[in-house]
Amino acid sequence: MKRNMTCIICPKGCLLMAEICDDAVSVTGNSCPKGREYAISECLHPMRTVTTVVRVVNRTDTMVSVKTARPVPKEKMVQVVAALRSMRVKAPVAVGDVLCENICGSAIVVTKTVL
User: Fold this and answer.
1) Using CA atoms, how far apart are residues 67 and 51, in angstroms rounded to an integer?
2) Are 66 and 56 in contact (CB under 8 A)?
3) How far apart are CA 73 and CA 58, in angstroms?
4) Within 13 Å, how many C-alpha atoms sit on residue 48's CB side?
5) Are 58 and 79 in contact (CB under 8 A)?
6) Beta strands at 88-89 and 51-56: parallel, antiparallel or unpaired
7) What is the per-residue pLDDT for 22?
8) What is the pLDDT of residues 21-40, one digit of tens each?
9) What does the pLDDT look like over 43-60, one tens digit per residue?
């Protein structure tokens, strides 16, 4: 199977071609080793940083933005969002506060201060 993609590791945005045969991936189009690593990872085990919002209970109509501290497997993104849908926090919260230690293998951190 062949797969075209654009590398997102740096602003150069190399156009990559990955050819997958069994569990081996050959990559062309990359101008650095990081592009090759990105393509292989994206083909065999794609990971994503999940960003969403959580309701702040002691503020009217207020949400706080959050994200996973590290990427999670792409197939677990829906589970992460579902787990956070019912989460509620109390202000004040600050950038970097950890709301939860482990959802699908990652901590959840605040990305906006709400006083």
Assistant:
1) 4
2) no
3) 33
4) 12
5) no
6) parallel
7) 85
8) 987 999 999 999 999 999 99
9) 999 999 999 999 999 998
